[in-house]
Automatic annotation (TrEMBL):
This is ApoA-I-binding protein 2. One of its GO terms (molecular function) is NAD(P)HX epimerase activity. It comes from Herpetotheres cachinnans. Gene3D superfamilies: YjeF N-terminal domain. Residues 1-186 form the YjeF N-terminal domain. The gene is Yjefn3. InterPro entries: YjeF_N_dom (IPR004443), YjeF_N_dom_sf (IPR036652), YJEFN_prot_NAXE-like (IPR032976). One of its GO terms (cellular component) is mitochondrion.
Length: 202
């Protein structure tokens, strides 16, 4: 995921002097992936800030949170409702709110308020696996409109409706029996890359 972020938004190309990225995490699996993403962004010299309003009691997710705290990644206590503050402070937002495991949770707080804010921001959004507010099969029905989509393991059906700037897939280490079971046709990963672009930048 950080590799795709670096490909989509290389440090020299960022419009702001500080390489700031806001990582917005939901309470379930996609939020945990967002925490891992934030940790790796810090390793690659970005300056992530995390908004994680509903923390999971899962021990593994708690460990991810602790790792981010130990790396001095700041956590926001609230998401500004003044959207311009987000536009001015960050180069991009990582959407790790809902993902493929979401059902009706987008209508519940704090997810509903987060999605309402993400729909209004002007800086680029990088969605992990399934853009928040999208149906995993049908696609968008009033959800956010990300600039970049990072599909995990393999693109989901809704990715056919993705119209953003770049689409990456991160699934190099998907076991062969899983590929066979679901009749997947993964792309070739060049060299040691863990992600591959499915759509060239526009």
């Amino acid at each position: 995921i950080p590799v795709s972020s670096r490909q989509a938004f290389p440090l020299p190309s960022l419009p702001r002097k500080q390489p700031t990225v806001l990582v917005v995490c939901g309470p379930a699996q996609n939020g945990a992936i967002g925490l891992v993403c934030a940790r790796h962004l810090r390793i690659f010299d970005y300056e992530p800030t995390i908004f994680y309003p509903k923390r999971s009691p899962d021990p593994l997710y708690r460990d991810f949170t602790t790792q981010c705290e130990k790396m001095d990644i700041p956590f926001l206590s609230y998401l500004p409702t003044e959207v311009q503050l987000i536009n001015d402070a960050y180069n991009a937002v990582v959407d790790a709110v809902l993902g493929a495991e979401a059902e009706a949770s987008e209508g519940r707080e704090p997810c509903a308020a987060i999605l309402a804010t993400l729909k209004l921001i002007r800086i680029p959004i990088v969605s992990l696996d399934v853009p928040s507010g999208w149906d995993v099969e049908a696609g968008s029905s009033g959800g956010i409109s990300p600039d970049v989509l990072v599909s995990l393991s393999a693109p989901k059906q809704c990715a056919r409706r993705f119209l953003g700037r770049q689409h990456f897939v991160a699934g190099r280490f998907l076991p062969y029996d899983v590929q066979k079971k679901f009749e997947l046709n993964p792309p070739e990963y060049p060299g040691t890359e863990c992600v591959v672009a499915l759509r060239a930048p526009r």
